[in-house]
Amino acid sequence: MDDKIRQALLKQVEKEPFAQKFGLKLIDLQEGYAKVGMAFTEDMENIFGMAHGGALFALIDESFEIASNSHGTMAVALNMNINYIASPVKGSYLTAEAKESNKTKKTATYDIRVTDSQNNLIAACQALVYRKDKPLPFLGK
Amino acid sequence: MDDKIRQALLKQVEKEPFAQKFGLKLIDLQEGYAKVGMAFTEDMENIFGMAHGGALFALIDESFEIASNSHGTMAVALNMNINYIASPVKGSYLTAEAKESNKTKKTATYDIRVTDSQNNLIAACQALVYRKDKPLPFLGK
Amino acid sequence: MDDKIRQALLKQVEKEPFAQKFGLKLIDLQEGYAKVGMAFTEDMENIFGMAHGGALFALIDESFEIASNSHGTMAVALNMNINYIASPVKGSYLTAEAKESNKTKKTATYDIRVTDSQNNLIAACQALVYRKDKPLPFLGK
Amino acid sequence: MDDKIRQALLKQVEKEPFAQKFGLKLIDLQEGYAKVGMAFTEDMENIFGMAHGGALFALIDESFEIASNSHGTMAVALNMNINYIASPVKGSYLTAEAKESNKTKKTATYDIRVTDSQNNLIAACQALVYRKDKPLPFLGK
């Protein structure tokens, strides 16, 4: 992918408030693809002491956001559909991979998979963006 | 709804780590219904300085979790589908309402709406749980 | 709603090949709203002799198509999410109601409910369209 | 896969009323996998003369039904989420492939892709079943 876009995205994700809140780390980035990691910590537990759906979603959404903006123009999330498959074990390190399944001028779709360190499938997501005809606002800064 | 279940849920949500992380407040609770509020703060911004999809989802998921467990038996999330409709303005106070649309012995479905303080629709969600034949583990504690 | 749009849609639905294939009847039509009926017949059975998911979907999709085109400009389906709730009984008359939950310049969302003649909820659907800036092609014909 | 299950499914699909209605052909069948074909004919057109969403869905749903029942026990559809990506050209021959992405004792998930004869992606679907602890009723008949 374009190196200027890559550097701008890496820098922007690093300082993103939400990514810091969850300790989200960008592991790999290519055009139409992103891999993000997150340690499942105690502040992510729900009323049953299991991983909160919202924590898994934070990880999923981050990989989706990065993959869909990797073409250098702004992508806006329209729809996300998630299947919860297994509960991660406490202390797990979780990884989300977002892969572009299609891209047209106006829309693009992504498949996102969350796995734990034993490669168990934790959640699967299908997501859709509207693609704006505008460059990423932080490009060239 | 059963007062014992209500008190147990209120207490459990109050000490839930994830709810604390996002400042989620349970505003109303009835059987099959929950209303949760969240101030949209700067630590919830994404790479564009807008509300991160994951922050909206945290709010949605909390209302869903509470509504689906309000019958006193454990509910496990299977699927969530979310349409992102508008970006909330910085400093907004957001509210999610989860309403049960159907309940059988094994599954139940919910409609969830997120609105801002001007009552603009921010996101709409449809969600599905598997209902276990087990009482909430923290009941009676 | 605009009477010219209404008449054009009524006429177009009446001669739609797909609607004829399933015996779909437009029962009510307003701006952002459509109600469609279908008798569940034997040619709609699946390998278990129950209603094929595809038959329920045909009914759902028809109400969605009509409601989303009721503003007089072309709407194109982007995403549909459906929860199957109960199996209709053989010989049931099923009804789908599509209600617009939101509309912006570029997109609109719909909630669709399928019920049987005893008013049991059979399926619930959430759907999203992209709104083109083009009048319905068959308007004014 | 088990040959008895394969033969029973092949036979059952062949006589399924809904499959006959759409001219659906089972092209390939393995455990957790099914490939189904359909010629896009004029009786599948919508009010714009394009492929009706319901026709694409019929094809998708058939591949999903077969893949999810290929283990020899009954699977019941709970949720389907579909992204419409491109309109097929009139006269196209469409193919849906359903692949199991996960299977537990109680649930299983599937990714389904519809492509045309030029291998263009037409629609993508993510689907979820509840797995009953019952053999297929037509096994052994």
Task: Explain the overall architecture.
The structure is a homotetramer of 141-residue chains. The first copy, chain A, has one domain (3-135): Thiol Ester Dehydrase, Chain A (Roll). By secondary structure, chain A is α+β, with helices and mostly antiparallel strands. Helix content of chain A is 24%, strand content 43%. Chain A binds chain B through residues 9, 12-13, 16-18, 20-22, 42-48, 52-55, 57-58, 61-62, 64-65, 69, 74, 76-84, 137-138, and chain B through 9, 12-13, 16-18, 20-22, 42-48, 52-55, 57-58, 61-62, 64-65, 69, 74, 76-84, 137-138.
Can you give keywords for this protein?
141 residues, homotetramer, globular, Thiol Ester Dehydrase, Chain A, alpha+beta
Strand sequence of the main sheet of chain A, in spatial order? Answer: 1-2-4-5-6-3
Summed up, the helix count of chain A is: 3
Tally of distinct domains of chain A: 1
**What is the approximate shape of chain A?**
globular
